[in-house]
Amino acid sequence: MTSINIKQEIDSLLINTAQEGASDLHLSVSRYPTLRIDGRLVPLTNREILTAGKAKDLIYSLMNEDRIGEFERNKELDFSYEFEEKIRFRVNIFYQRGFISAAFRLITTNIRTLEDLSIPSRVYDFTKPSQGFVLVVGPSGHGKSTTLAALIDRINHQKYAHIVTIEDPIEYIYVQDKCIINQREVHSDTHSFGKALRSVFREDADVILVGEMRDSETIGTAITAAETGHLVFATLHTNSAPQTIDRIIDSFPSGQQNQIRAQLAGNLLGIVSQRLIPRIEGGRIPAVEIMIANSAIRNLIRENKNHQLDLVINTSADEGMVSLNSCLADLVKNREISMENAEIYSTNANDLRMIMQR
Prior knowledge:
The protein is α/β, with parallel strands linked by helices. Helices cover about 40% and strands about 25% of the residues. A seven-stranded mixed β-sheet has the order 9-8-10-11-7-12-13, with helices on both faces. It has a six-stranded antiparallel β-sheet with strand order 3-2-1-6-5-4.
């Protein structure tokens, strides 16, 4: 098959992904090209099962020689790919059993509002302070980047500020309004999250977005940035607010943990934990936990009593806090999601059943 035909085929697959409303496209040897639609894997049985040669040809057609060389050296590669300036994908290429595979995450070009995403508008309150630390957490593929984009775009239209994003790769492209927005991609614009974050201190930034905190150096620098007058947004792959606090503290050596605990207690604004649940009528809807760092929350973090954070969240609805189980229960009562799925995504199914019985 010619290179032209290969390019036409991969382009056809990417167009198909967007047209079907899929979130992801998977290319894997001995499988049909497969879409993820509303969380479910859907093989494209009208296409050929991928051979090793075909998979390699399709994937390599998206890369120049430099990227191919980097992939073959490192055995995996992340990059963003834009098709005809209309469709953007976050791409991860990797080896498995010696064969080349790829996962494509579709990135919608329009940045949606929290209302569009069915996320409580009170989350916009985290964009109002001039400094502090805000975390959006949850499993991979459950909308963290989309929520962060809504928050950054809100600032873009509401404040005059300099926003610097550090991403791997860049996902949403912002149309600058009141803000200057500089988007830096790891590997192409900077060598690492840590180096880019340290550089931000000399870039006159007001707002910083850290696409992912992967190590203690990045976490520590992000907290310091919040402490020194920046509004910092970041993500972690954790399942709840208490687990997020534990993950941050535990990423540091024991001798540094008290200092980090104090810094976090003093600078945290809040944590939004979310996961996307299959809707009864199709599609997915977010279930959201919101923890706001009031004085009680700050004291518990400072005193290393993270196990009590859930109690404060559960009893502080009047302050805008929302527990995951109360959100799941509301979605079940409103017939948005099934009780079965609510229990699957709950971090405490027994507590959820007790809420449903009230």
